[in-house]
Amino acid sequence: MDEDFLLVQKMRLGDENAFDRFVTKYYPAIMKYCQIHIKDYGYAEDMTQETFTRFFRTFRQYKHYGKAVNYLYVIAANACRDYHRKRKELLLEDLPEMAEQDAGGMDEQIEIAEALDRLSDELRETAILFFIQERRQKDIAAILGIGVALVKYRIRRARELLSEYFTE
């Protein structure tokens, strides 16, 4: 049986430890996802917390089909879109605070962010999920609500465009 399914069942029974394990298990990945979309650490953390708040607010209606993390990514994407709707303009200097990275790492982070910003919204979302979040193509298709063939196309196209950018 799926580990997530068992965890969800325990949460439905009110097991507080199951809630803690669920958040502990997925918080880092969702936080990283939000940091990529929202270039301010504080706001990214807020959107991560909002993701879990939305999940638990509608938890009773949640139907477990596959992986819970895919549903969290959908919620996180919506939370980030809501954030961007409210804040139309983000500056490059609003990159997340990365205390553990040295200056070279920050330069690399800036370069990656600039490259991703050059992609269309659809390609950027797919590239982030595949290259940075290391999600499987099947999972990306489920998260974005598109077919695997389209995911493969977007990954190939993003790879081509990013390759062009990094060779400039």
Task: Explain what this protein looks like in three dimensions.
The chain has 168 residues and is mostly helical. It has two domains: 97 residues, RNA polymerase sigma factor, region 2, helix turn helix motif (Rna Polymerase Sigma Factor, Chain: A); 64 residues, Arc Repressor Mutant, subunit A (Orthogonal Bundle). It is built from eight helices and no strands. Helix 2 packs across helix 4. The longest helix has 22 residues. The protein starts with a helix and ends with a helix. About 10% of the residues have low confidence.
Describe the secondary structure blueprint for this structure:
Layout (H helix, E strand, L loop, with lengths): L2 H10 L3 H22 L3 H17 L10 H19 L16 H16 L2 H12 L4 H8 L3 H20 L1
Summary tags:
single chain; mainly alpha; Rna Polymerase Sigma Factor, Chain: A; Arc Repressor Mutant, subunit A; 8 helices; 0% strand
What is the level-2 CATH architecture name of the largest domain? Answer: Orthogonal Bundle
Average pLDDT score: 83
What name goes with the CATH superfamily of the largest domain? Answer: RNA polymerase sigma factor, region 2, helix turn helix motif
- Secondary-structure element pattern, one letter each: HHHHHHHH
Number of helices: 8
CATH topology of the largest domain: Rna Polymerase Sigma Factor, Chain: A
Q: What about the largest sheet? A: none
- Give helix % range: over 70%
